[in-house]
Write a structure and sequence with these properties.
Length: about 130
């Protein structure tokens, strides 16, 4: 089962996105790394590393991040984990909310890593107006 990690500068945003995603896919492994260790706004590569390791079930992990420096922190976190695991950790080029929900639902259906990642990527094209 592909794990999902939600990275945000705000712990409230990360937890809120997780809450919505789990409304759609109730018992799926979704982990968050929001904010800094002291509760501030920002990202912490160590917290991201821990979330990735917790989300790993052996089938890969899809990570979704909110802003540019979160993307850099994900990169640092990947450098800190076991290289074998790092190969199966994919950062989705997707909007945080839509991508996380789509990826979580796809992963909950038992889809492989590549399909979960593609589903997250496809959320970029979701039309919101007619």
């Amino acid at each position: 089962m592909v794990g999902i990690v939600i990275v945000s500068h705000s712990s409230k945003i990360a937890e809120g996105v997780k809450e919505v995603a789990l409304q759609m896919a109730k018992n799926h492994p979704v982990y968050t790394a929001g904010g800094t260790a002291d509760g501030g706004i920002g990202t912490d590569p160590v917290r991201i590393q821990e979330a990735i390791e917790a989300a790993n079930t052996g089938d890969g992990v899809v990570v979704l991040a909110d802003l540019g420096s979160a993307v850099m922190s994900v990169g640092l976190a990947k450098e800190m984990i076991d290289p074998a695991l790092a190969k199966s950790v994919k950062l989705a080029n997707a909007p945080l909310v839509e991508g996380a929900i789509a990826a979580t639902v796809e992963a909950s259906m038992g889809s492989p890593l590549a399909k979960v990642l593609q589903t997250a990527h496809d959320a970029r094209n979701m039309d919101k107006v007619e």
